[in-house]
């Protein structure tokens, strides 16, 4: 099973969640600045990284943990991933999407924008870190819930058809789908099909 933690840029809340899941951060105390900055990808992704799944590690139940920056896809990410999974024959039991965006506060928004968009890392990073520390226990609680989950059997069929309501940035959407397939080692589906799927053709 693959667990995909996702947030706006894949640089802050999703990274902290993935790190907690894998035991890279202590879930009994708030981490310091040095601990956060030493995490892979923390405050380290750029716009061209959005939409790509980054492998973070394997947990104690042999589940693969990933981080994804979804930008403004919001809940449409779920539809996009479900359609990509259906097209590739991947069952719903093989992956879990975990939205880490609800655990982003205004400090993380301001700090993240300053650091990643404006490239003022020395100014933005301390603000992001303070935001993470403020919401740390909420992220801990969410991750603990996810770690206790067992694969869910779902009978609902996701049908690839017009009207899927995926009207999003096509470059980002194609990047998400391609990256999702690559996580399963799937390379045989044509990009023409991928583009048609994203464009609802």
Automatic annotation (TrEMBL):
Keywords: Membrane, Transmembrane, Transmembrane helix. This is DUF3189 domain-containing protein. It holds the Pfam family DUF3189. The chain crosses the membrane at residues 180-198.
């Amino acid at each position: 099973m693959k667990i995909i933690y996702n947030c706006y840029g894949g640089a802050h809340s999703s990274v902290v969640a993935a790190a907690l899941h894998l035991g890279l951060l202590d879930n009994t105390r708030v981490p310091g600045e040095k601990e956060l900055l030493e995490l892979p990808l923390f405050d380290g992704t750029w716009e061209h990284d959005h939409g790509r799944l980054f492998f973070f590690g394997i947990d104690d139940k042999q589940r693969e943990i990933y981080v994804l920056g979804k930008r403004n896809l919001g809940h449409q990410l779920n539809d996009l991933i479900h359609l990509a999974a259906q097209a590739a024959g991947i069952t719903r039991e093989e992956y879990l999407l975990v939205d880490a965006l609800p655990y982003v506060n205004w400090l993380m928004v301001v700090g993240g924008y300053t650091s990643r968009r404006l490239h003022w890392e020395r100014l933005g990073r301390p603000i992001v870190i303070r935001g993470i520390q403020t919401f740390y226990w909420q992220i801990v609680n969410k991750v603990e819930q996810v770690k206790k989950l067992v694969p869910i059997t779902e009978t609902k069929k996701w049908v690839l058809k017009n009207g899927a309501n995926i009207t999003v940035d096509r470059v980002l959407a194609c990047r998400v789908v391609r990256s999702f397939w690559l996580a399963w080692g799937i390379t045989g589906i044509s990009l023409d099909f991928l583009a048609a799927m994203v464009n609802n053709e």
